[in-house]
Amino acid sequence: MQRRILTKTAAILAGQIRQSLLQNVPRTTAFKIAISSYSSSSTAKTVPFTADTYSSKVQRDSRYKTLEQSDLDYFHCILPETSIITDKDDLDFFNEDWMRKYKGQSQLVLKPKTTQQVSQILKYCNDHKLAVVPQGGNTGLVGGSNPVFDEVIISLSSMNQIRSFDETSGILKVDAGVILETADQFLAEKGYIFPLDLGAKGSCHIGGNVACNAGGLRLLRYGSLHGSVLGLEAVLPDGTVYDSMHSLRKDNTGYDLKQLFIGSEGTLGIITGVSVLCPARPQASNVAFLAVKDYETVTKVFNECKKELSEILSAFEFMDLKSQILTQQHLGLDQHPIESGQYPFYVLIETSGSNKEHDDEKLETFLGGAMENGLVEDGIIAQDESQIQSLWSWRESIPESSTMNGGVYKYDVSIPLADLYGLVEACNAKLEDAGLVDFTDSSKPVVSAIGYGHIGDGNLHLNVCVREYSQAIESVLEPFVYQWIQQKRGSISAEHGLGFQKKNYIGYSKNEQEIAMIKSIKNHFDPQAIMNPYKYV
Amino acid sequence: MQRRILTKTAAILAGQIRQSLLQNVPRTTAFKIAISSYSSSSTAKTVPFTADTYSSKVQRDSRYKTLEQSDLDYFHCILPETSIITDKDDLDFFNEDWMRKYKGQSQLVLKPKTTQQVSQILKYCNDHKLAVVPQGGNTGLVGGSNPVFDEVIISLSSMNQIRSFDETSGILKVDAGVILETADQFLAEKGYIFPLDLGAKGSCHIGGNVACNAGGLRLLRYGSLHGSVLGLEAVLPDGTVYDSMHSLRKDNTGYDLKQLFIGSEGTLGIITGVSVLCPARPQASNVAFLAVKDYETVTKVFNECKKELSEILSAFEFMDLKSQILTQQHLGLDQHPIESGQYPFYVLIETSGSNKEHDDEKLETFLGGAMENGLVEDGIIAQDESQIQSLWSWRESIPESSTMNGGVYKYDVSIPLADLYGLVEACNAKLEDAGLVDFTDSSKPVVSAIGYGHIGDGNLHLNVCVREYSQAIESVLEPFVYQWIQQKRGSISAEHGLGFQKKNYIGYSKNEQEIAMIKSIKNHFDPQAIMNPYKYV
């Protein structure tokens, strides 16, 4: 598929690369696993109610009112018929998360079309103590956008208009329910790029991205949403509209309150509009895919990369072997991009710049040097846009691939770089000790813990791929995973948020004073506590 | 000093540049002003008390206690002798701002050496209702770090240690009182760069930079402090230490409360420590200095620059002719970098990248094209580090040069790009109508309004250079300037903050709901209102 770089690099370096690198490296026997031996179990079974699965941990708060006909009557007064969903089958889509791990029992989904309607809904709910769950594209990974009990779901999917775009400044203003990919395609036509990219881009909403402070694949290059979001419109629990849709790159007039909503996961109010600064779309992009012999070497490749590729480096992703085996099976492809054998680790490097010739020269020089120094075992560079997309699919398909045997426990964590992969190894050892894990034996409930993620951000995705969800697995993993992270002074949620899954574990990443201040701010904005209860903090 | 690029560019473009560009362009007669005719008045006169100058606008709040011997006794118990300043002459340095526009009447400066001491001081002041002013390098431009009446000054200058630096991640942790330039020099030795740079770097403190959300010269490249600050340590008004000195690029566990302190100007607590992500220091830098015929063309040059230089563009600064004439006089130099004549506008472009050859090629190609298209009248590229520094001095010396005739009214504002320079023209017209302005006639109180700043950020520095401060000038300028900005939907403070100067004008940039929420957060954190009173909001 992709042309090997070895020949070209060898030519550039005029024979400086050791001859041995031009030959196939023997397969790393420890990872020699026959792909054909997997079972591919179905994921179509019924999802149990969160309230049942976690009945020992969470009880319905009796302060909240139960939905009555009079409430429905009110909503029918302020919303058109098409904005109100009460049909049982239709509700499932909104009650369940995409991992099929959490399921709420809401009897009502509201799909407002305007900020004013959101305001009317929240004011009513606040006055009547009806708990609510704001929901974007429902692509969250911690059960944050699904009800736990009977909360009213407020879906932003009908607020999906691009409000404006300024071609000089690159400032885009959108409704919260605009799908990320839709916005990026719109921007592509104008020569701009959305400063965020992630696997769920075809479904996730920009409002949801901001509410969860999504990090994704471009953070290394374009920074976090705390930097690129210039303004927000949000409705507070009492129905007040906080209109702060500014379009200024610099504005030091008062506390930057919009920052509180970025990453608040729908607990302070509902984001209805976003103003975001978009960079010029790079005129040249390229992707290299490398094989690396061990984790320590992955970090060395990263450090070299930062120095040599510097301003054109736009992504540095790593993947372990098992993540690639699962992905290959899921994609149903005969060949992996690296054909010379299996290697413990793979790295995807993306460059983005203004001059293709310069960028390719930098990338090839870097790879040539890295191979010469023994940092890289094998590698390829994409030759065109379709090859770039194809290489990316080996990284972006991992989340889906990791659920193919039945389900996945997902941990999205930050750990100082040197220790980052140690968590995956520790989890596999722990599951091994408990006799729960086997990569091929389908009688064991766990397939494997796999690791991949954004090395450039110190962000590991630990996916524990399972054949079924069970309390036995969960009790081996938690709080073990969180304790391990705490010891390394990491974060138990790098980018996925706290949601329902991690609500009780924030103490592993934040101290008492921080938690007290967070609770106090929550109470300041939402004294009736109607916003997304049973979650966050 | 700098080698002309014309020959080199001409060679590259093989005769594509129009011959006329190789000749001197005639001086723009409207700006033909004899440098020798200036008066250079002294700035050594006494600064009047802010309380007197603005007696009609602000009264001392009687809720605050007046300093007594018992208070001094307490501070002597918890601090060493050298941390307490009560000598009248020594106090002046802390009471006055560097523009010599504001002067407080504090009788006490405390210079704690530890976070614990800051905590003890604030707890005492909060319990006894002693108002305080936190002070960093005292380089602020809106009177935010000086007392208005008799507030106790808490200077962070004795908390000046670099706490740690991680060479793999580039994360620097410092005491709030570390001077920006000291940190950047420390980082230079490690191959890293501080993500913020500004004219006052030799004096300003990092804690003060964060408290004011300083933008500066590198924002275009490295983004705002809301993105690069990873953690903070701050002491709350009641003495509680908020220890949030994290070192993770991604951490989505709870509201990002540190963001509230970024840009809070000492009104919520005192920042005592900062954790900041520092990028790898570019291996290659260059600077070009261009002459441009009008403001509209400046914006066109910027748009071309964004496209062609993209990832290596690290600064795009513009300056008008009068700012350069004043700077030339202030620097005492015979020659301006552009020797071929005077032009209405000048632009400084900085590139930073990993490959000097690639960067220089991009810069030269860009300039060649810009001259061919008639966007640029004349231009030079620095040939070595000392020339880079020298070219930068023509931009960085403007703030000092603007005070050389007596004083300056500074406005730091954000305005959509197309209208940005219109404010300078509108101010000069307004001052002209009032008969207050003449560039050469020293009997008039105003020299001129001049404009310069960070085009890349939509950030104009409007400096009204005066021979003396007067209410007559101020009443012509305010609220006129703020009203003009409001009409254009800009910000009355892009990066300098609100401080004392702009406290009453926030309504020109924020709506009632935003202001109400800001006031409510202030009250939430500082119910006794001891922190930096009479300012901000």
UniProtKB/TrEMBL annotation, chains A, B:
<dbReference type="InterPro" id="IPR051264">
    <property type="entry name" value="FAD-oxidored/transferase_4"/>
</dbReference>
<dbReference type="InterPro" id="IPR006094">
    <property type="entry name" value="Oxid_FAD_bind_N"/>
</dbReference>
<dbReference type="InterPro" id="IPR004113">
    <property type="entry name" value="FAD-bd_oxidored_4_C"/>
</dbReference>
<protein>
    <recommendedName>
        <fullName>FAD-binding PCMH-type domain-containing protein</fullName>
    </recommendedName>
</protein>
<dbReference type="InterPro" id="IPR036318">
    <property type="entry name" value="FAD-bd_PCMH-like_sf"/>
</dbReference>
<keyword id="KW-0274">FAD</keyword>
<dbReference type="InterPro" id="IPR016167">
    <property type="entry name" value="FAD-bd_PCMH_sub1"/>
</dbReference>
<dbReference type="InterPro" id="IPR016166">
    <property type="entry name" value="FAD-bd_PCMH"/>
</dbReference>
<dbReference type="Pfam" id="PF02913">
    <property type="entry name" value="FAD-oxidase_C"/>
</dbReference>
<keyword id="KW-0285">Flavoprotein</keyword>
<feature type="domain" description="FAD-binding PCMH-type">
    <location>
        <begin position="102"/>
        <end position="281"/>
    </location>
</feature>
<comment type="similarity">
    <text>Belongs to the FAD-binding oxidoreductase/transferase type 4 family.</text>
</comment>
<dbReference type="InterPro" id="IPR016169">
    <property type="entry name" value="FAD-bd_PCMH_sub2"/>
</dbReference>
<dbReference type="Pfam" id="PF01565">
    <property type="entry name" value="FAD_binding_4"/>
</dbReference>
<keyword id="KW-0560">Oxidoreductase</keyword>
<dbReference type="InterPro" id="IPR016171">
    <property type="entry name" value="Vanillyl_alc_oxidase_C-sub2"/>
</dbReference>
<dbReference type="InterPro" id="IPR016164">
    <property type="entry name" value="FAD-linked_Oxase-like_C"/>
</dbReference>
